[in-house]
Design a protein that fits this description.
single chain; about 475 residues; mainly alpha; about 80% helix
Length: about 475
């Protein structure tokens, strides 16, 4: 048994059908390099998830409707950020290629030009978000019982998205060149600031006023500003690999942005499909009833734990895939993808055990409402199965994005998120009559389909031949 497990983690198994293009480092070296790069990203993502959990727990002290008011803003927020996410995908992929090619100037010009585009886009979108906050949130499924608090919260959050979006772009470039520690540091400090002012402003501590949901939004804004300023200072220092003072002129350059747009174009299509799918799915759940929706928000909060590990390891897989393809080592790009997939299997087993054994205590952290606790405990059982599909597929899609194969990832999103999740969620929740449980089973079907399609693409190996 032990021998078979060792074989599964061996170089031969990691390579699959890919032929070596040169000397392959020892297994210990490969795993160690992957984990060193992934470690800060995993810590960063866990911290982000932890802050989200603490944020929701603090807001829950105001009641279940306060959870709804904050939660209904989640998908509208991601709709605004989807353009930044797409641009960051292209930035990471192209910076990783330039790093692999030894092109310092090229990597820095990508950062500078992406920043120009991102700043213009995020200012426009956040202005629209603030102006049309109420109709946007009502369209998302907000109830009259909490719409007033939701609008106040969302308008402040829109301001924070300017700083969050620019921070995402800078850190995307840092991750592309393998510097995952700075992203961890910025988000750690930003999250600590967020938690501190949550504590001070939600219920009013000492001289600070009791602002409730508005206080949670202000805390998020202050955390976003703090994280952005640290990221900005880093790229203002000439001694670092990435800095905005590199030679090449300050005017925007289409030649520099062209490969970024090539990757980001398909990534944007993917993001738009994802947002439509998630937005539709969120509307389906929000229209069930306020208690079901509060349960959904709490369980989605728990799902971020699964996301954070998958996304953390994905950063390493994406960066290493891009760097090795730039260095003409597709064999190592494939190996690092395989390493990521094997590691997240182990993590997923541990997460499943955690969700199953701790489902009732976890729900009681947020609420004393018996109906919410019972519904949530069942959803966490479903999540214990989802977590494997979710973590494994993000490694595969991360490698495909790092190679620039974003068009195929967009197709996967169209099928799984744009069609299967909302359609299955609606049919199982309403037509079959399973309510919130049916919606979560729709999520399971979505994640399963994404894993099947992305794994098949990785095994075929066409992504290893893409040029950027």
């Amino acid at each position: 048994m032990i021998r078979k497990i060792r074989e599964l983690f061996s170089i031969r198994a990691l390579l699959g059908d890919v032929k070596p293009a040169g000397e392959i480092p020892a297994e210990k070296v490969l795993y160690s390099h992957f984990l060193r790069l992934a470690g800060p990203s995993v810590i960063e993502m866990v911290l982000v998830a932890f802050v989200g959990i603490v944020d929701t727990i603090m807001v829950s002290s105001l009641g279940d409707l306060a959870i709804d008011a904050v939660g209904i803003s989640t998908q509208p927020k991601f709709v605004i950020l989807c353009f930044i996410f797409a641009l960051s995908t292209g930035t990471t992929a192209v910076v990783a290629r330039r790093k692999g090619q030894g092109d310092l100037v090229g990597a820095n010009l990508v950062l500078r030009n992406a920043f120009y585009v991102g700043l213009a886009v995020i200012l426009l979108l956040t202005a629209l978000g603030r102006e049309f906050a109420e109709p946007f949130l009502r369209f998302a499924g907000a109830h009259d019982s909490y719409i007033e608090d939701a609008v106040v919260y969302f308008r402040i959050i829109c301001v924070s998205l300017v700083f969050q979006g620019l921070n995402i772009l800078i850190n995307a470039a840092q991750k592309g060149c393998g510097n995952t520690q700075i992203s961890m540091t910025t988000n750690l400090i930003g999250n600590l600031v967020n938690i501190l002012f949550n504590y001070l402003l939600i219920n009013g501590i000492g001289p600070f006023p009791r602002l409730g949901v508005k206080g949670a939004a202000i805390a998020t804004l202050l955390g976003a500003v703090s994280a952005f300023l640290i990221s900005l200072v880093r790229v203002l220092m000439r001694r670092h690999y990435l800095n905005i003072f590199v030679e090449g002129g300050w005017k925007p350059s289409y030649a520099v942005l062209k490969p970024v747009f090539r990757v980001s174009g398909s990534a944007l299509a993917e993001q738009l499909i994802m947002r439509v799918g998630f937005f539709s799915f969120n509307m389906i759940v929000a229209k069930l009833d306020p208690l079901s929706y509060a349960t959904h928000i709490i369980c989605m909060n728990m799902q971020t734990l699964s996301f954070c590990f998958g996304d953390g390891f994905q950063v390493a897989a994406t960066a290493l895939a891009g760097q090795n393809l730039g260095a003409k080592r597709p064999d190592l790009a494939y190996v690092y993808c395989s390493i990521g997939r094997r590691i997240v299997v182990i993590v997923s087993v541990l997460l499943s055990i955690f969700f199953i054994t701790m489902r009732y205590p976890l729900m009681r952290l947020y609420t004393d409402t018996p109906e919410v606790i019972e519904m949530g405990s069942v959803c966490l059982l479903i999540l214990s199965v989802i977590t494997y599909m979710q973590t494994a597929q993000v490694i595969c899609t991360g490698c495909l994005r790092g190679a620039g194969d974003t068009r195929y990832v967009a197709v996967i999103s169209l099928i799984a998120i744009g069609i299967i999740r909302p359609l299955a969620g609606y049919l199982l929740a309403y037509a079959v009559g399973w309510g919130l449980y049916g919606a979560w089973l729709g999520t399971l079907l979505d994640q399963t389909m994404r894993l099947v399609l992305s794994s098949a693409r990785v095994r075929k190996g066409k992504w290893l031949e893409i040029q950027l």
